[in-house]
Design goal:
With 316 residues, this protein is α+β, with helices and mostly antiparallel strands. It folds into 2 domains: 138 residues, PurM-like, N-terminal domain (60s Ribosomal Protein L30, Chain: A, 2-Layer Sandwich), CATH 3.30.1330.10; 154 residues, PurM-like C-terminal domain (Phosphoribosyl-aminoimidazole Synthetase, Chain A, domain 2), CATH 3.90.650. The chain is 34% helix and 23% strand.
């Protein structure tokens, strides 16, 4: 009979060479060495089968997404990834599933230079993955939701709606032709750490798009006590979404969620510099609106009120 210690030893005890780790997996707790002069950023996300991913999602995709969504949160805060913990609840101990899961987790962790330092493994009726990721940021480089300013331009770091369309494809309710790219965007999102690096000292606020563009922008607006005007004709859509009914495509892009692009605001004084950086670094970022203190909530360029509808764990 496989024990939790066997699972940890076989699948999640990786060799670590990080200078910031004294002791990691194998003790009652990790002993860590934080860098001098930086602030610690901590984020936690739980993914539950048939809530955050369809229950037939491959193990490698589940592992990738579980860590990627946490890396996305660190990116949105302006932090560099350093460590993470894993709490894994398993309905059964399928060696093939565990091997695929652990190898995929190790791959993305290596890709973004973040070290697994501990966690917990237990048995339960529903597959559940909880990751707590930690990173560091210079105090003056932290990105918050509450610091947007009137007049700032609103940007997103990439295309919106593909992941929501991918979910619709998996659930066989997409009106257009299925596209593997959209399904990959759903299963294996890319945390936007590269773009986040270039936002430090330039962006005034930031959030990642997890619950939906409008819902997440509304978090910035509420925290900053401001409103916004959105240019719907500037919302970036992939060719897949451009080839379906436009309102359906906008629904995916504005309210679908799971994009894990960054949504951020750029002050007018930094706009020319930011555009120059995008050109030099070949970054595709899209200006989709502007912060405006005279607006209550969100409206379109034509003055139509936009509702902050997105995914809510308790409302659906």
């Amino acid at each position: 009979m496989t024990s939790e210690f066997d699972i940890i030893s076989q699948y999640f005890s990786w060799n670590h060479k990080a200078n910031s780790i004294h002791t990691a997996v194998g003790d009652d707790g990790a002993i860590l060495i934080p860098p001098v002069g930086k602030q610690l950023v901590v984020t936690t996300d739980t993914l539950i089968s048939d809530v955050h991913f369809p229950d037939n999602t491959p193990a490698d995709a589940i592992a990738h997404k579980a860590l990627a969504v946490n890396l996305s949160d660190l990116a949105a805060m302006g932090a560099e990834p350093e460590w993470f913990t894993l709490a894994l609840t398993l309905p059964n101990t399928d060696p093939q599933w565990l091997e695929a899961f652990s190898q995929s987790l190790k791959k993305i962790a290596s890709q973004y230079s973040i070290a697994l330092i501990g966690g917990d493994t237990t048995s339960g009726s529903t597959l559940s993955i909880t990751i707590t990721a930690m990173g560091f940021a210079e105090p003056h480089h932290l990105l918050l939701r509450s610091t947007a300013q009137s007049g700032d331009l609103i940007y997103v770091s990439g295309l919106l709606g593909d992941a929501a369309a991918g979910l619709a494809m998996v659930q066989q309710r997409f009106s257009g032709q299925d596209n593997q790219h959209c399904i990959e965007q759903l299963n294996k999102p890319t945390p936007q750490l590269t773009i986040a690096h270039h936002l430090r000292g330039i962006a005034s606020s930031c959030i990642d798009v997890s619950d939906g563009f409008l819902a997440d922008l509304n978090h910035i607006l509420k925290a900053s006590q401001l409103g916004a005007r959105i240019h719907l004709d500037q919302i970036p859509l992939s060719s897949t979404l451009q080839n379906i009914d436009h309102q359906e495509a906008l629904n995916y892009a504005l309210s679908g969620g799971d994009d894990y692009q960054l949504l951020f605001t750029i002050p007018q004084k930094h706009h020319a510099n930011f555009k120059k950086i995008c050109q030099q670094q070949d970054l595709l970022c899209y200006c989709v609106g502007q912060i405006d203190h005279s607006i209550n909530g969100m409206i379109t360029s034509q003055g139509k009120i936009l509702n902050a509808k997105g995914f809510n764990h308790f409302l659906g």
